[in-house]
Amino acid sequence: MRQYAVFGDPIAHSKSPLLHNRVFLELGVPAFYGRYHLKEPSSLLERFHALGLEGANITVPFKEVAFEQCDEVRGIAQKIGSVNTMVKEGERVIGYNTDAEGFFQTLEGKLRPQNVLILGAGGTAKALAMIFDLHQIPVTILNRTPGRLKPLAEQGFKTLTHEEFAPDSYDLIINSTSAGLSDDSLPLPAPWLESLLHSGVLAYDVIYGKTTPFLRLAKAQGARFQDGREMLISQAALSSLHFTQHHFSLSTLHSLMRLALPQ
Ligand code: NDP
């Protein structure tokens, strides 16, 4: 039986085993997907091999470590500098990033944004900024502190700290901060969000499994809103394409994962 796992710290909350095992089970793939609580980042690749894995997902806070440790990194992961999917190819481990493309696919048929505001400047923000840039969609990244903005500004992105913020018009506003994840906070002061969120806007929170204060405010303002569930499924389905060696269609993988993760 082939073995797969997700690595992270913390990891108990991860829905990835639920999604991937559903696919393996329903499609008769002789494989099992577990979770692994990694504490020592430098041992990621060593643990991957020691556990006899054929593939893995990497979550917070090890995506940059995975990027460093893979034998080869392919696709947009090279630009983002982070890997969320590791796949064994012969004796080598290849790294991919499915977060960015997974997110972008969730917009298809819904919105072709003209002007995007990303709240937060962490790993997820970076992945999303890169995919918008690839599709030549203008993006502004707004973060409460300057530290994480600096490398993004150096790569040519428009960046703003909260101090520099001035309201503009955006048709897609994404909360990629962890505000609202385990507390009741907003990613921006409420009056600013009230000026940004209205009926022509899609408010997108990458956090899944709860209606965050950001989404509650968007709803109250009459904006369209969406949580991170579809993104979670979409990035997992793209990883699953790699894990199952492209034997099944993306839509089949999507449908099975949707069944595994009730609304
Ligand atoms: P990082 O730790 O890399 O970045 C966190 C960002 O949030 C930083 O920019 C930080 O600002 C900002 N931030 C944290 N708290 C607040 C706050 N109270 N107010 C304003 N800004 C805040 O995290 P990631 O980018 O890796 O992950 C972000 C979120 O995305 C997580 O909630 C994660 O669960 C979710 N996620 C969802 C996925 C999905 O499939 N649905 C996939 C990947 C991630 P500062 O720099 O000032 O500290």
TrEMBL record:
Shikimate binds at residues 14-16, 59, 84, 99, 208, 235. NADP(+) binds at residues 143-148, 206, 228. Residues 6-85 form the Shikimate dehydrogenase substrate binding N-terminal domain. SUPFAM superfamilies: Aminoacid dehydrogenase-like, N-terminal domain, NAD(P)-binding Rossmann-fold domains. Pathway: Metabolic intermediate biosynthesis; chorismate biosynthesis; chorismate from D-erythrose 4-phosphate and phosphoenolpyruvate: step 4/7. It catalyses: shikimate + NADP(+) = 3-dehydroshikimate + NADPH + H(+). InterPro entries: Aminoacid_DH-like_N_sf, NAD(P)-bd_dom_sf, Shikimate_DH, Shikimate_DH-bd_N, Shikimate_DH_fam, Shikm_DH/Glu-tRNA_Rdtase. GO terms for biological process: amino acid biosynthetic process; aromatic amino acid family biosynthetic process; chorismate biosynthetic process; shikimate metabolic process. The keyword Oxidoreductase applies. The active site is at residue 63. Pfam families: Shikimate_DH (PF01488), Shikimate_dh_N (PF08501). HAMAP family: Shikimate_DH_AroE (MF_00222). Involved in the biosynthesis of the chorismate, which leads to the biosynthesis of aromatic amino acids. Catalyzes the reversible NADPH linked reduction of 3-dehydroshikimate (DHSA) to yield shikimate (SA). This is Shikimate dehydrogenase (NADP(+)). It comes from Wolinella succinogenes (strain ATCC 29543 / DSM 1740 / CCUG 13145 / JCM 31913 / LMG 7466 / NCTC 11488 / FDC 602W).
